[in-house]
Amino acid sequence: MIVSVSCIEEDVFNKLSKVPMKFYTKIVIIITLFFAAIGAEHAHADELFPYPVPPDSMMELQPRCDYIISRFWDRCNFGTVFNYRQKLHNTMGSWFAIMQHASADTVHSSIDKLLQIVAKDGKKTLALAEMAEEWLYSDTTEMRSDEVYLPFVQAAAHHKKIDKATRARYQAQEKILLSSSIGSTLPEIELIQPDGNTTTFGQIKGKSILLFFNDPDCDDCSMANVRLKTNIHANRLIDNGDLVIISLYPGEVSQEWKDANSALPNGWIAVSCEDADLYFDLRTMPSFYFINSKHRILAKDLDLDYLFGAFQVAAEQTRRN
After folding, report:
1. Could you tell me whether strands 287-292 and 244-249 are parallel, antiparallel, or unpaired per DSSP bridges?
2. pLDDT tens, 127-155?
3. Phi and psi for 123 in degrees, rounded to 5?
4. What is the pTM of this model?
5. In sequence order, which residues have a C-beta less than 8 Å from that of residue 108 and are 6 or more positions away?
6. How many CB atoms neighbour CB 231 within 10 A?
7. Are 307 and 314 in contact (CB under 8 A)?
């Protein structure tokens, strides 16, 4: 959870928190089907093991989800379940889907418990990490969650019975997740400015910061660049000193990039970092992160239209004040 944010951050963040992130897509349908599937005590033919059934007296959604998540694997035979890879993969998907409505403590405890069961077996640990990656971190997933995926990444990244090359791949993912997940502080990496001087995120000050990953060779980035520069609400926040926009080019400095960014609007800072992909997930461009004054990530993977809506709310609030 993010606490102790300024008024402007609260206004914008409250708006952003209402964004229907990918994790919520089809979640109601998934839950409905999931509860229907566990209506009986015994597993159906296509289930690997009987799922836990909350007591009838437990009516609220979160306690029911906590009950299921915390006991989900209790009747699983871990000696044979990995022989049914596709069924196990589907079962993991059901488990991840219900997590969205469970408490964070229950979710993390359940993940730790599962990983501890297979901790001595490199093949099983890797299998779980691969399934988690497909459900939670792949390009096409509808249940993206860095927080839930991270424990699986760390288990595979440091398991001595997993080959070195595979461990290195998960170690790279771990670095990205620790640097760029919600709640993380931006890494202190070297950033190059158009005039050739260097800076770091920590040296860039602002009540609120929009980090805009902006590749000039990306058409969508160019369109987003124009829309941001002409948005009246973003400009009002900038003029009031409430917002700073960092346009970060994740590539090698070129003269063309220097020339294009030599004269920027008020409140914009252009920087380049060719190693940005070591710290941030840049599979989708453009990408937007909303940062507080302490350089902590409040929200990420934001749609520009939702951002504009948040800026409008915040700008109107500051004008009333």
Report:
1. unpaired
2. 999 999 999 999 888 899 999 999 999 99
3. -65, -40
4. 0.82
5. 151
6. 18
7. no
